[in-house]
Every structure is written in C-alpha cells, then in structure tokens.
Amino acid sequence: MGKDSQPQPDSHEALVATMIEKMGRDAAMQLDTLTQIHLLVMNATSGRPDSVTDYQAVISQVRAAMGGAFAQRYERSLRSKVDADAASQQADLARARETLGRSSNGQPLVSERELAEFIGSGAAAELLSDLSPEVREKLETLGKKR
C-alpha cells in the first residue's frame, strides 16, 4: 500500500486505525499485538484449552473497548492477516530451502530463468541506476571479461 493510499475499510490496518482513534496509539497497538500473539499460540498448540481461553480473554477486551460488531470484523481480519503471514513465511522458507539445496549441490543460486525475469522486469536497470558510477563501471568491466 502506497503512502497516499487508504486501506480497505475492513482491512486489518483500517480496523487497527479505528482502534487507535478510539483507544489511543499505545493501547490499540498493545491490544492488537497481544491478540495476534494469542491467536498464533492458539494455532500453534492446535487449540489447547488454555490458549483458547487466553485468546478469548484478549478478544473480549477488543469487544469491551470497541463493541461486538467491530470485534467480529476485527477477528475476521486478524485471522486473515495471521493466515496470510503464515503463508508468506512458508513461501520464504521454501525459497530458502531451494537456495540452500542449490548451494549444497554446487548449482548457481539464481537460475537463468530467474535472471532473465529480473532483467526483463526492469529491476536490474533500477538497481544499477542506484549504484555509484565507480561500482557500475567495475560491474560493466567484469561483464565484458566474461
């Protein structure tokens, strides 16, 4: 999300912003963080009874501060956020394992396809434009030697 764009009305970011307006930044951020942590613990423990109780206690704080309808929307957004974060972490782990596998097998860390995509996307040109002229010149010299 760009710095000028607004979050979607029921996005987690928008709901936390609403909490901040009502509760103040520190209280809202602390409650949001605790809620996320308790949901993660509950998920990690497969809904162990004490983790469910702890999670429900924190959600009840959201309900008390913001109302029942808001708490339902918040809980949906929180679950979506936690699920998306977990999926992203799994994807990062898969990429790290792939890179480790390539490295362990003496293969290049980047495939020709990935390199072509990087160059074709314009990201390579953007990266090179950020380098100092001296570094760009060295890279170009190294490229010509190959």
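That was protein one. Protein two is written in the same sequence-then-structure order:
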Amino acid sequence: MDLITAAELAEHFQRDTETIVTAAARAGLSAMQVKYGRGTMAVFQREDALRALAPILRPPLVAQAPKRQDGADLTEVADILHRSVESAQQAIIKVVEASGADCEHGVGRALELVQKVLDQNILLMRAMNDLRAEFVAKVNALQASLDAALGDKDPAARPALPPAPPAPEVTKKKRLRVGIVSLLPAQKAAIEHEFAKVFDLRIVNSEDQRDGSRLESMVGSCDVILALTRFITHSTEASVRNTGTELIRINGGMTQLRDKLADLYVRHEDGAAAPVAA
C-alpha cells in the first residue's frame, strides 16, 4: 500500500500541515496511525488522499519565487530602471512648472477681478448717495408743497410726516468730460442712462464720425476720449488725435467700455492726475 504523510501532502499542495489535516477531515479521509520511533505518525493512502484533497486545496495563485542564481548579470535591468526614473523625474518637473505658471496666471487674474469689484462697489456707493440726496430733496419739496396747501388750516390737525433723514454732505467735483467714438443709437442710450449723472458725455455716433470737422468740434473740449477701435476708420482716429486730447483705445465691446468708464470715474473721484490708457 502506497502511503503518504501529512507533511508530504503539505509540501505537495504548498500548504501547512494544519491546513492539510483540516482539509482531510472535510474530505472524510481517515488517517492511519503507524509506528514511528517511540510514537506513532498519521498517514494516508496516497492515491485516495491526492484525489480527495485536490478539489479543496487548489494551487496557490502566486507561485513561489525562483531560487536565486549566483552570478546573474543585473546591469541591463539597472540601466532600464535608471532611465525610467529619469524619464519620470523629467515628466514630473514639466508638470510642476506648467502647474506653477497656471497658478500664477490664476492668482493675477483673481487680483484683477477683486480690484474691479472694489472699484465698481465704490461707484455704486457714490451713486446710492446721490440717489439718497435726490430723494431727500424731493421729500423736502413735497413737505413744502403740503405746508403751502394747508396753510389756512390748523397745523395741529395736519398729518405728521416722518422726519426726513439728514442729507449727506457730498462734495461734488467737476464732472469729467468724456468723449466716446463711435456708438450705435441703442448703445448710446444705454451708456447715457448708466453714466450721464457722473460724466459730461460727448458721444459720437456712427454717422457723426464721417464729418471730421463736426467730430473735432464735438470731442475737442473733452478731458479724455474713448474710441471703440472695431467701429472707427483710420481717418476718424486721425481726426480724434488732431484734437490733442488723450485717446484711449477700446479693443473690446460694451463690457470693456463700461469697465473703463467705471475706472475713469474712480480715478477722477480719488484725484488721480490723469486716466491711464488701456
């Protein structure tokens, strides 16, 4: 009878002896006790044990590492690893440099937007103060009209009006004279609606710019001239420059024009020496 020990089964299936004994019990294998030295040793019938344990103890997914061979040449492997590391380092450096440039550009753009919002907030607050002063003046005028209409009645019978808030002390500076060349009628109406209260506007439309003398007379007395370069001719630009007034070229559209007007207002109110051309 061909017998096999639990240790031999463990080596065959690449498992420990305890796993072999547990699997044998699950498979219903009965160990035979044979005399071994002063004691006994459990053995199994070889063919039955291999057939019963094979479905339970499948070979391990990871094979054993091959034995080390003395004298193996690893120079080529080392060169490959070295080149791979250098390539990875170069790739990482390029990514870091590109990310740094993007971050720097993003920070600069964010600072520009913050400054733009601050400037627009200043313009909005000053416009609100102007509206408040205008509202207070209208309330006072209404109160005076009521007093005049009810002059012959008992003052005690008049309905009491809430006290008007004190008008803020606003020191108004001379409005900046701004010429704009050239706008369509709808664009002109929009700009006048938004900025006529803070600027002395001289707007030249697409028709007026064709007459050089009329153009110079309209914008010649301005402090600064904004020109939308997409809508003016070279002759128009030459006529504007003949006035000697500072010319600011607007290469974009209405959004850039509004931003520049807001910037001019803030600079003028803050006492800037002269507007800065874009």
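The CA atoms of residues 266 and 272 lie 9 Å apart. Keep this in mind for the problem set.
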